[in-house]
Amino acid sequence: MFNKLLLLKVAMKIKMSVVLCVSVGSIMLGGCATPVDTTPSHTRILAPDQDDEIAGSFIDSSDIRTIAQQMCTELLTLPEVSESPDTVRIATEKIRNSTRYMIDTNLLLRRLRLELNKYSQGQVRFFAQGSGQAARTRILKEREQTRVQKAIDDVASFIASSDLVQNSEKPVRLAVVPVANTNLFNMNADSFASLLRTKIKDHAGAKVLFAKAGSDAQVDYTLTGEFFVESIKREGVANTVEDLKWAQENPNKWYADPNYSPGSTVYGTQINLDGSIRRRIKVGPNITYKLIDPALWNSPNLTKKFNVMLVNNEDMAVLEKVVNLEEQIKSGQERANYILTGDIASLSRARAGQRSDYVLVSLYLIDPVSNEMLWEYGYEVKRVTSRSVLYR
Amino acid sequence: MHTLSCRYVIVGIVLLAFFGCRTTYDARRTPAEELQSEGRIVFVRPDRYSLFGTRSIRDYIEITYEQISVNEAGYPVLTVGLRNRGGQHFWDTKGPDVQLSVQTAFYNKPIQPDGAASGPALYHTNWQTVKLVRGQTSDYKVACPIKGANHYQMTISEYLK
Predict the structure, then answer these.
(1) CB-CB contact of A356 with A346 (8 Å)
(2) Which of A55, A82, A113, A235 is the Cys-Cys partner for A387 at CB 3.0 to 4.6 Å?
(3) B104: enclosing H helix or E strand
(4) What's the domain count of chain B?
(5) Could you read off the pLDDT of B127-146 as tens digits, one per residue?
(6) Which residue is closest to A77 within chain B, CA to CA?
(7) ipTM greater than cut 0.90
(8) Do B128 and A62 touch (CB under 8 A)?
(9) Fold exhibited by the domain A61-129+334-385
(10) Which of B12, B73, B161 is opposite residue A82, by nearest beta carbon?
(11) What's the predicted TM-score (pTM) here?
(12) A53:B161 CB<8 A
């Protein structure tokens, strides 16, 4: 009996010890549990310089970063850059890829730009070639509209304050004649003339009287003018009469714009210069001709000016003023000091499932005036791989 | 007696349970002595160890020289001679080619006496690959695009994978 009791006590103690150990162990292990796995499935995040173990014998991200890092300091060290009193502006040209691999060569230029824009402290600047140009054009065009209003106001003020008007004993009588070359701007000439007339009247008051449009009233002067562009090439289409003449002489360089209203057109027949094809053409006032040669499209990107004239009864222009109505939207690269470009070349070999590439990356700085290469940088690497991948 | 021991057990379990319930823990700070003992050129410990032999970079690579200078534009340039001295032990049945990843940090204050605790580096290069065939000495050159950062610490690791 006594032994049984003893055995029972021992068994209880053992049981308690086991329970205690299991409990404590569970709690301790619970505190050591591995945290929730937050890595994306089947994906490992690498440092940009780290090898991705996919293999390949072409250049890698670490090569591009190394090239950018080395080039940045070398460029900043050049006397043409470090000793220049002004900001050095660099235009870039696409790097030529002479290898058999598909690579976005602009990646290299972008990485270099990042380094230089970060560390040059404004000493070096690049042009936004291809980036943000649509927004830039919109902004500049909208600013121009404000400028047009101001230009009209300036012209009106010029005329109203001229001696012709101010020193006249009687009110000066003016007739408005449509301005020439309005097709150049694809502009409504009547609206332009009305705006100008209104502004002149605002500035001159009772000193100026305008004849009704189309009337035969006796006037002192005719208010007219012409639009022209700052270019020695033939730009756009001059006017309706010249449009037709030019269209007939150059049938293979234009075609009718299908988007106009047919109500104001006149139809005719055009025979080509080679006599082979007859086609019906549409001509008429204020028609926009879309030209195959983009250099001759309406509203070319050039600085457009307006020459306003007051013409006397002897057809002599007694007063003239030229105002800018539209500035050419330039890329800004005329201010570039240098051009940065380069090429990537490789020597490739393959045998028995192995492939090797010796890659030479060259970048150089060109003076656009003298066409000299004033600096060149080279980076070379050779790799061999037993994983023959098509594009690496 | 039995009831008393049960109570103690329960209290102990509850206390242990609370030990495992902290949300945050203080980060370990690198001891100042450890940072102070670091030199200007350091090797990273190997990525793995083997029972026999060694993968330590120090066993294969030696520094022949180190020079810091300032170029004509005022930017610091560091040149270090890295030599692959080949296998030095009986288990090296051949002298291996070595591929390294090297990163250099440039400071405007000396590394010593505070070591890397002296503050953040003004400029870090990326991890650049240096390949050394057996017996080759590479004049590894790195420049910093920030003037005045004439102090440095170069970290050398086996090729990053």
Answers:
(1) no
(2) A55
(3) strand B98-107
(4) 1
(5) 999 999 888 899 999 999 99
(6) B73
(7) no
(8) yes
(9) Rossmann fold (3.40.50)
(10) B73
(11) 0.71
(12) yes
